[in-house]
Each structure stands twice: as structure tokens, then as C-alpha cells.
Amino acid sequence: MNHSIYSADRATHWKIVVVALVAGIAVAGFGMTARSGSDEGLTQTARVVKAGKPVVVTSSNASLVR
Length: 66
Known about the structure:
Elements: H1 10-37, E1 55-57, E2 63-65
Antiparallel strand pairs: 1-2
Keywords: Membrane, Transmembrane, Transmembrane helix
Transmembrane segments: 12-32
């Protein structure tokens, strides 16, 4: 038994191609269903945050408002 892909026959190459294709389709299908199935009212909205007064924080955990 030779374990080299170079000396494999045509049927072995086709088996590898088919297994890889089926695995790729399965991963893509799982990804699409996981993405569209988890959209149950969890939409994200952008909020505008206005900047307040500048604050400087030191290592003493005290804040100084300038």
C-alpha cells in the first residue's frame, strides 16, 4: 500500500475531490443557517454619544475636571 497522493489512481483523486466539495458545501450551509437563524430581534442600532467635559484620571483613582 502506497500512501502517496502522487501515485494514487484516478478514482482516489475523484474521492478526495468529492469529499472536499461536500465538506465545503456543508460548512458554507452551516454558516449561512447560523447567521440567518440568530437574527431574532437582535438588530444593532448606532447611537450618537456626545462628548462631555474632559476628565484626567491619575493612578490614585482620583479624577480632575478641568
